[in-house]
Automatic annotation (TrEMBL):
<protein>
    <submittedName>
        <fullName>Zf-HC2 domain-containing protein</fullName>
    </submittedName>
</protein>
<dbReference type="Pfam" id="PF13490">
    <property type="entry name" value="zf-HC2"/>
</dbReference>
<feature type="domain" description="Putative zinc-finger">
    <location>
        <begin position="22"/>
        <end position="55"/>
    </location>
</feature>
<dbReference type="InterPro" id="IPR027383">
    <property type="entry name" value="Znf_put"/>
</dbReference>
Length: 94
């Protein structure tokens, strides 16, 4: 029995648009969420997620997960509709 694997087995990566900035953002995520990023890092971060939906969503996701883990969900201020779309995304990702 020989299994056939083709390129089509794998879903297309949705994040072709990732840049070097996105790499930095993902490194900053933890710092931002823990409130340990420097003011300069915060500015860079906030500016980036205003323009980059994938990093914005990552940040929201991380905040949600962190909130779930630490029980501080009430600190996450997002519209319900966004929460729903993020939860849907999380389920797609997991
Ligand atoms: Zn980005």
């Amino acid at each position: 029995m020989e299994a056939k694997y083709t390129e089509e087995v794998y879903p297309k990566a949705p994040d072709d648009a990732r840049t070097a900035d996105c790499e930095q953002i993902s490194n900053l995520l933890d710092l931002m969420i823990d409130g340990e990023a420097s003011p300069e890092e915060q500015r860079f971060f906030n500016h980036h997620i205003e323009e980059c939906i994938s990093c914005f969503e990552n940040h929201q996701k991380q905040k949600l997960l962190k909130g779930l883990v630490t029980g501080h969900l009430k600190r996450v201020i997002v519209p319900q509709s966004l929460v729903h779309s993020i939860k849907a995304k999380i389920q797609e990702t997991l």
